[in-house]
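Morning run. Coffee first, then this:
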Amino acid sequence: MAIAPTAEYQELVMEVEFTAGSGTYTKVCGLTNITVSRSKNMAESMVPDCADESLPHYIKRAAQSKDIGISATGVWALTHHQKVYNWWNQDLTLNVRVTNAKVTSDGVSGDTESEVIPMKLESLNNARQDKQVVSAEISLVQDGAVTLNTLSA
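And here it is:
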């Protein structure tokens, strides 16, 4: 039996370029659970059967736009407190890089290794529970065109 090669927890990496245009990306300390959601907004057209217009129409679909959202949870670490808070408070659009490190180590030339996504910090939540450290939950929304980086030979 052959087992499919899979990416491990630490091989899905989310980093933020806190200084625009610097090319320096940093993992946000404390955010340990990350979900990347990719979707398309679809346009629909109803197309009749020209031979028999009494038949139900066919649906023709086309992608109207693409969207990436990221949610992350974990603990609220002082390390990035002010940078993350400024991102939300100042309504900044920052580049977020999502890397599949499994592709980096084991992929083949042409595989998508990372996506660089301009994003706004839509929501920033903190919570406290008795005898626990303060938790963090963020939601990021795409705000511009995505750049795909592929693995080279």
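The mean pLDDT is 96. Good start to the day.
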